[in-house]
Amino acid sequence: MNDLSNYRKSYDKSELLESSIPEDPINLFNRWFHEVEDFGGDSEVNAMTVSTIGLDGFPKSRVVLLKKFSEEGFIFYTNYNSEKGKAIAANPHVCLSFFWHTLERQVIIKGIANKIPAITSDHYFESRPNGSKLGAIVSNQSEVIPSREYLEENLKQLEGEYEGIVIPRPEYWGGFLVTAIEVEFWQGRPNRLHDRIRYSSQDDFSWKIERLSS
């Protein structure tokens, strides 16, 4: 057995107080995101964990990249026929989480995921490098394949087919918008007395703000 009981760290880089937070969680998320970006150390600040309830009834989490956020919500892209895509189609209740170790911060977002308009996915797909476009086409994400060579051979064939022409977005690939209904901000503090502030969406489109015990 690997005993990890002595893995300990003191959290003392910042604090999260009600007197210094906005009424809207997106504004606070924006502030934190750019503070982490400016601080450096997190090579992909937009890396987040997406958790879904699978068709087998089990929760599953995986890391994807956040591509846009606004008052409307949080957008990421995937293969709609993938395991996560099918899970979201069956149950759109998802959880997003960010852990930024450099500033000892975590954000957990509960929300509802919906496909974004096709034209929005088209615009983003057009902005991707050709290699990424072909990768989205060649990979039947989450499906069992015989070997690595199988993917590489299919990619080589597609490179020949699309040489010198526009690569279209496949219909099975696009974005999801996650509309937040609850956002929790966690700031590490000394002696494990961490700061936890939760925003809960209300029927009048305002946000209820509560402090949670660490």
From TrEMBL:
**What enzyme category does the UniProt record give?**
oxidoreductase
Query: What does the record note about the cofactor?
Result: Binds 1 FMN per subunit.
Biological pathway: Cofactor metabolism; pyridoxal 5'-phosphate salvage; pyridoxal 5'-phosphate from pyridoxine 5'-phosphate: step 1/1; Cofactor metabolism; pyridoxal 5'-phosphate salvage; pyridoxal 5'-phosphate from pyridoxamine 5'-phosphate: step 1/1
Concerning PROSITE patterns, the annotation shows: PYRIDOX_OXIDASE
Q: Which GO terms describe its molecular function?
A: FMN binding; pyridoxamine phosphate oxidase activity
Coiled-coil region(s) at which residues?
none
Gene Ontology terms describing biological process = pyridoxine biosynthetic process
Give the E.C. number(s): 1.4.3.5
Give the Pyridoxamine 5'-phosphate oxidase N-terminal domain ranges: 44-157
Q: Where are the transmembrane segments?
A: none
Q: Known SUPFAM superfamilies for this protein?
A: FMN-binding split barrel
The Swiss-Prot or TrEMBL record lists the needed cofactor(s) as: FMN
In which residues is FMN bound? 62-67, 77-78, 84, 106, 141-142, 186, 196
Q: Which UniProt keywords apply?
A: Flavoprotein, FMN, Oxidoreductase, Pyridoxine biosynthesis
Enumerate the residues binding substrate: 8-11, 67, 124, 128, 132, 192-194
Gene3D superfamilies linked: Electron Transport, Fmn-binding Protein, Chain A
> Residue ranges of the Pyridoxine 5'-phosphate oxidase dimerisation C-terminal domain?
173-213
According to UniProt, the reaction catalysed is: pyridoxamine 5'-phosphate + O2 + H2O = pyridoxal 5'-phosphate + H2O2 + NH4(+); pyridoxine 5'-phosphate + O2 = pyridoxal 5'-phosphate + H2O2
Q: How does it assemble?
A: Homodimer.
Q: Which family does it belong to?
A: Belongs to the pyridoxamine 5'-phosphate oxidase family.
HAMAP family hit by this protein: PdxH
Outline what the protein does. Catalyzes the oxidation of either pyridoxine 5'-phosphate (PNP) or pyridoxamine 5'-phosphate (PMP) into pyridoxal 5'-phosphate (PLP).
Recorded protein name is Pyridoxine/pyridoxamine 5'-phosphate oxidase
UniProt source species? Flavobacterium pygoscelis
Upper lineage is: Bacteria, Pseudomonadati, Bacteroidota, Flavobacteriia, Flavobacteriales
